[in-house]
Specification:
Blueprint lengths: L6 H6 L7 H10 L2 E5 L5 E5 L11 E6 L17 H7 L4 E3 L5 E3 L19 E5 L14 H12 L14 E8 L2 E6 L6 H6 L6 H4 L9 H5 L7 E7 L3 E6 L12 E6 L3 H10 L4 E2 L9 H5 L4 E16 L9 H9 L3 H8 L5 E2 L22 H10 L3 E2 L5 E3 L2 E2 L1 E5 L5 H15 L4 E4 L4 H4 L2 H4 L5 E6 L10 H4 L20 H10 L5 H18 L2 E14 L2 E2 L18 E2 L2
Parallel strand pairs: 3-11, 3-12, 18-19, 18-20
Antiparallel strand pairs: 1-2, 4-5, 6-8, 7-8, 9-10, 10-11, 12-21, 13-20, 13-21, 14-21, 15-16, 16-17, 22-23
Helix pairs in contact: 10-12, 17-18
Length: 565
């Protein structure tokens, strides 16, 4: 079987139509917006409309965090992907069914079509000859080689080098053909490449520092369905239709990514019609029931692969003792957070993988909320209360800050609850929140925080590989490539990650990931709180919107969005 084939089914290990989420995906494909609400009821908003033959209208997407990094190959926050999906292109993308679709290639390489050798080591890419950069320069095999070599370069701070660092012997066979070999089989590579947005060689190679290409960042150039128009820092980014796009669309004249850090204001602007689409963190759970009743709005709650977590910086002395992390978890009132603050919408979890993943471990130890047990754990580990009641050991006080995006009132309520939970066991947590542009910059990427509350998708598309978040080689502040900002290092986890990526046999891969989840559940570099059930909304009449569990942002197919007339 092709390693590109049936990837959506492999996410769950079940047939495509076997779950409500599959029906969600298939229903929208028929030209209707079909959603499942939190109670399992179907909400349908079908519009008889024909796609425009040329771009028309403007679509405003409301974001609670601000996109700030417009070089997709370096570390960035998930919100930046909202722009990337429309400005840049990967070699291939992953659709709502989990199938890989050609973007910059004319055909996705598989074993069946000869694009991948039988041993999985030799790959042949045939590029779309119609693709070109926004400045009119043709897109060629030289661009692909340049991007792969840049990512492989250990001196370049790549957002993710896993898998791509196994690529060797890149050879250009023609302007639109190239081959490469892998030094060893790497099963997650197709998914990794589906999330790797390419940048133009002819512009980046002119920059003195390709990781911070000053001129390029002023006006980024991609191959995507929309071109750069303007950025007003702290307010919005505007992209306009690319008339020379080689794929389907675009069908809108412009996309405006509007940044509104205050959740209440963002929701209000969705109510009043100033915002056409609002997704991640845009409609808080306490507003879900009300939002469903809004006239001329379609609002739904759909499962997402993201896990809400408390991320510890294990480089800080206060978190180096596993007993501390375990005690903080036991002292966390998870049920109170989910039921009281999030109105029961999210799913409780013990893993970094979503329940829907074929590699999800359903047999992990279940969280127990017990302040008494937490205090006993700290006592036994030698953390004794000081004069002011805050525990300490060997001169280290159990005192730290917790940060998240300022203006997110639901997370702020969670922080306040945790602050009291942990004070009850002799741990002092100070809340220190920042604007998105600050917290998700070097503060996050270079591990300058004590702890952070963040929603993280640990997977890569439909693949459960989490090398970028857990491998010791993926710690940016130590020169690694990845997003292991927790600075977690465990030799057994490193071994299991390598083992899970070394075969296409899903049953063998699953063994590695099941064991890995047991270890991370014990080590707790991240405290898993819940799996997202995201409330999102669109204005009635917006056609083409499609939830997709395999991507980081649901603007992934905005090139095909348009207004019904």
């Amino acid at each position: 079987m092709s390693i590109m084939k049936d990837s959506f089914e492999s996410l769950t290990g079940r047939p495509v139509m076997a779950t409500r989420r599959r029906f969600l995906s298939m229903g929208a494909a028929a030209g209707a917006l079909v959603f499942c609400d939190a109670t399992g009821n179907w909400v349908s908003a079908a519009f008889a409309a024909t796609a425009p033959t040329s771009p028309t209208g403007q679509i405003v997407l409301g974001l609670s965090q601000e996109p700030t990094i417009f070089m997709p190959l370096i570390p960035h926050a998930d919100v930046d992907n909202a722009v990337y999906f429309n400005l840049f292109s990967p070699l291939w993308s992953v659709d709502e069914k989990g199938a890989f679709q050609p973007e910059l290639v004319s055909e996705v390489p598989t074993l069946e079509n000869g694009g991948i050798s039988s041993d999985g080591l030799t790959w042949k890419l045939k590029l779309d000859e119609k693709a070109k950069w926004h400045d009119g320069t043709p897109f060629t095999a030289e661009d692909v080689k340049f991007n792969l070599e840049l990512i492989r370069n250990p001196k370049f701070p790549a957002a993710n080098r896993a898998g791509i660092d196994q690529i060797t012997d890149i050879e250009i066979a023609g302007p639109h053909e190239l081959t490469f070999r892998l030094s060893k089989l790497y099963a997650p590579l197709p998914s990794i490449l589906s999330w790797t947005f390419l940048v133009p060689k002819h512009l980046i190679e002119k920059e003195s520092n390709p990781a911070q290409p000053t001129a390029f960042l002023e006006r980024p150039v991609g191959t995507g369905p929309f071109k750069w128009s303007e950025r007003s820092p702290g307010d919005h980014v505007t992209l306009v239709a690319n008339p020379d796009f080689h794929g389907t669309g675009p069908r809108a004249k412009a996309l405006v990514f509007k940044y509104i850090p205050d959740g209440t204001v963002l929701y209000t602007q969705f109510q009043t019609g100033e915002i056409d689409y609002v997704g991640l963190l845009g409609i808080s759970p306490d507003k879900f029931e009300e939002a469903q009743k809004l006239p001329k709005r379609v609002v739904s709650a759909t499962p997402q692969p993201m896990i809400e977590t408390i991320v510890f910086n294990l480089g800080k002395d206060v978190f180096k003792d596993p007993a501390v992390r375990q005690a903080l978890y036991v002292a966390m009132d998870k049920k109170g957070i989910i039921d009281q603050i999030y109105y029961g919408l999210p799913s409780e979890t013990e893993s970094f993988l979503p329940h829907e993943s074929w590699a999800y471990n359903s047999n992990l130890s279940t969280h127990e909320y017990s302040p008494e047990k937490a205090m006993q754990m700290l006592d036994e580990a030698g953390w004794k209360p000081g004069a002011d009641g805050i525990r300490e050991k060997n001169g280290v006080r159990l005192e730290f800050t917790n940060s998240t995006t300022a203006g997110n009132h639901v997370r702020e309520q969670t922080q306040q609850l945790l602050q009291q939970n942990w004070l009850d066991i002799g741990v002092k947590m100070t809340i220190s929140n920042f604007p998105a542009a600050v917290i998700w910059g070097d503060y996050w990427n270079m591990s300058k925080f004590d702890s952070v509350m963040a929603g993280i998708n640990f997977m890569v598309g439909p693949d459960p590989d989490a090398t970028g978040s857990f491998a010791s080689s993926a710690i940016p502040v130590k020169g690694g490539s990845g997003s292991n900002t927790a600075q977690y290092s465990n030799a057994e986890v490193d071994r299991l990650l390598a083992e899970g990526a070394s075969t296409f046999d899903q049953s063998e891969r699953k063994k590695a990931y099941l064991r890995m989840q047991e270890i991370t559940r014990q080590d707790l570099p991240y405290l898993p709180i819940f799996q997202y059930n995201m409330v999102q909304g669109v204005k009635e009449g917006l056609q083409g919107f499609m939830p997709n569990v395999n991507v980081q942002d649901n603007s992934w197919n905005a090139s095909t969005w348009y207004w019904a007339t």
